Amino acid sequence: MAGDRDLAGRTALVTGGAAGIGAACARALADAGASVIIADRDGDGARRVADELGGRSWQVDLLDTAALESLQLDCDILINNAGIQTVAPIEQFEPAAFRRILTLMLEAPFLLVRAALPHMYESGWGRVINISSVHGLRASAYKSAYVAAKHGLEGLSKVTALEGGPHGVTSNCINPGYVRTALVQGQIADQAKTHGIAEDAVVEQVMLAHASIKKLIDPADIGSLARWLAGDSASMVTGASYTVDGGWSAS
């Protein structure tokens, strides 16, 4: 699809777009001609990516859901990507941390979809792409909030697909395994402590234990799939979940 500019004239909003998967998705969409809006709590990071891609930045705290309730978005493509992680057994999981993850990774995507659909419906075209996880389809110990949020996001995506279909709007999930990002790197110490192993053993013994391809995923691989889902060639693809996990979910 190199050189294919079929997203020219479309506006894409990417949350958590300052780095990692979000930045990779923004680059892929911009390469296809889309005008990108990089939304992130990290305003400087969002501006750097936006400047690189000739787009705009939006410094926003998606945990402030009250500010999102009256929001109106004029975007054609919405990528819900922002996320955080906490690793702990249920009996030690702080309730505030649980609520924080559910707010950022389920309630905020709902509010953004709610804000984006009127414009998409009016124009008769829209793409909602939710960066879910293998943990939206499977479970792992010590990740109760993350797994719950991603399972909820899967449901939200399917309902959006059913409601949006008659209006030309598709909604799909991308379900990565462990991607080479700061979010994954940042949980290694917690994983080591919780599992009782050395930090340098976490990637092999925990993160890649169930994958047949033993390496962390490149964020650009997720961006490529998001770019395809956003294009006209995927106009009949909706309500689906696409694993990019090195074979983890096949085990």
TrEMBL record:
Into which family does the record put it? Answer: Belongs to the short-chain dehydrogenases/reductases (SDR) family.
One GO biological process term: monocarboxylic acid metabolic process
Stored NCBIfam families: PRK12429.1
Q: Which InterPro entries match?
A: NAD(P)-bd_dom_sf, Sc_DH/Rdtase_CS, SDR, SDR_fam
PANTHER family xrefs? 3-OXOACYL-(ACYL-CARRIER-PROTEIN) REDUCTASE, 3-OXOACYL-[ACYL-CARRIER-PROTEIN] REDUCTASE FABG
Please provide the record's keywords in A-Z order: Oxidoreductase
- What top-level branch of life does the organism fall under? Bacteria
Q: Which organism is it from?
A: Microlunatus endophyticus
Q: Which GO molecular function terms does the record list? A: oxidoreductase activity
Q: What is this protein called?
A: 3-hydroxybutyrate dehydrogenase
